[in-house]
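Q: I'm building a small set of examples for a reading group on sequence design. Run inverse folding on the following structure and report the sequence directly after it, with nothing in between.
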């Protein structure tokens, strides 16, 4: 075969693959990351050759928004996890071809559907089963749901390996690290510098934090996000969970992952190499940038997010993280050192404590205090090996129960 024919055939293949429809599902489509993802998909559809088709959208209970999204994207399947909302969703989608589902089994059906790329944006360990199912099926997973990796670590990574899809980090820090990390030469990396904004209470004293309200906690200075992750950012447990997430995603020893506070959230994280080079990824604090990176990787796609204006970036500052003021940082480090099922318990206790805080049953500083008590109540020494989905789910359940017990005692 002549070289020009080979080149022409190769070009033809590229054209064909460009014409191929890419099937996408979004789990947690009504949340902050979900809405940004659909916005980005809409934009990408208008600005690139690639044809995109939405397969499944899922939500917990917001059927009004879910139905609107399903109609706007012409999705094949819309699922609400709360099965009492089934009739409402059905009603809202009457007269369309969109198949409606509700409850746990429909969520798993959505995850079984043939999508090439799945956005995992359910909040908390509630996203575990759908992520595992999509991972085993071999989908590329755009990964926002950090709790899933903290809770189920090796179980989730094994499911990814089994399926053969790519794990594409969406959490802005991990997406940043992913973009500048030399996976072929990890031994040439000396440090991962995980940046943190420091949250809304970076400059507050512990005394001031004792009286923090829900409204203050969910009001993040740089990012607009869901209530749970905003609260985690305020206690800095978000950075703790991200430390564990980074340790799972990148083959760098966890002792070489450092948290550094960078209040402007312009640098989204950095990787340092043996020769002293530090590579950073930067951008405005807009989740559509890391989502776009995960959608197109290793290619690039246009995103509607604002571009950095370097003329106006007068101050980029850095400071050490303070585990005395934010004990969640210490707890997460301890759970990571224990490894095994300790991060599972940490995550579960934190989820319950945050929920109790958001429902005004718990004071802000007690979120971390409850988590610490629950973590300290386990003997993890013997549970390092043989982690299975069953023992992950068991520890998750027990830790939640213990967290409720501690909260009940505190509020008695
Ligand atoms: P959110 O609360 O705004 O949205 C959560 C989504 O999950 C919603 O669609 C909700 O309907 C769904 N959901 C909640 N509970 C559910 C359940 N029990 N079963 C099924 N679905 C359920 O949260 P978010 O801020 O979009 O965050 C989503 C995930 O992405 C979290 O793991 C968070 O840590 C991570 N993340 C978020 C951001 C951000 O900018 N918001 C950034 C980085 C990482
Ligand atoms: Mg993050």
């Amino acid at each position: 075969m002549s070289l020009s024919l080979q080149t022409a055939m190769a070009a033809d293949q590229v054209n064909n693959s460009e014409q191929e429809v890419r099937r996408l599902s979004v789990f947690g489509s009504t949340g902050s990351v979900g809405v940004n993802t659909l916005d980005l998909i809409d934009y990408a559809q208008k600005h690139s050759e690639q044809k995109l088709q939405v397969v499944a959208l899922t939500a917990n209970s917001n059927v009004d928004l879910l139905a609107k999204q399903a109609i706007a994207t012409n999705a094949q399947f819309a699922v609400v996890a709360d099965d009492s909302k089934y009739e409402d969703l059905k009603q809202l989608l009457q007269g369309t071809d969109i198949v409606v589902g509700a409850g746990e089994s429909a969520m798993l059906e959505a995850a079984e559907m043939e999508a090439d790329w799945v956005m995992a944006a359910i909040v908390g360990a509630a996203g575990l089963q759908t992520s595992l199912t999509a991972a085993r099926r071999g989908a590329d997973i755009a990964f926002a749901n950090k709790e899933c990796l903290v809770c189920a670590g090796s179980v989730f990574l094994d499911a990814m390996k089994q399926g053969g899809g790519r794990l594409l980090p969406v959490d802005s820090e991990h997406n940043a690290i992913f973009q500048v990390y030399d996976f072929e030469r990890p031994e040439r990396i000396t440090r991962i510098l995980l940046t943190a904004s420091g949250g809304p209470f970076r400059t507050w004293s512990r005394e001031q934090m004792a009286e923090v309200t829900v409204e203050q906690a969910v009001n993040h200075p740089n990012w607009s996000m869901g209530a749970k992750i905003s609260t985690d950012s305020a206690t800095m447990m978000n950075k703790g969970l991200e430390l564990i997430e980074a340790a799972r995603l990148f083959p760098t020893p966890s002792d070489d992952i450092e948290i550094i506070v960078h209040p402007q959230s312009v640098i989204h994280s950095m990787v340092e190499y043996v020769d002293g080079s530090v590579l950073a990824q930067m951008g405005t604090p807009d989740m559509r940038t890391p989502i776009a990176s995960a959608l197109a990787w290793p290619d690039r796609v246009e995103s509607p997010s604002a571009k950095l204006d370097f003329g106006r970036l007068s101050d980029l500052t850095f400071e050490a993280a303070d585990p005395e003021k934010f004990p969640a940082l210490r707890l997460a480090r301890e759970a990571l050192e224990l490894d095994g099922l300790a991060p599972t318990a940490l995550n579960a206790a934190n989820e319950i404590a945050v929920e109790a805080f958001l429902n005004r049953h718990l004071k802000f500083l007690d979120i971390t205090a409850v988590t610490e008590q629950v973590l300290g109540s386990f003997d993890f020494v013997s549970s390092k090996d043989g982690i299975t989905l069953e023992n992950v789910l068991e520890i998750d359940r027990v830790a939640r129960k213990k967290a409720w017990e501690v909260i009940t005692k505190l509020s008695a």
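Residues 389-411 form the longest helix (23 residues).
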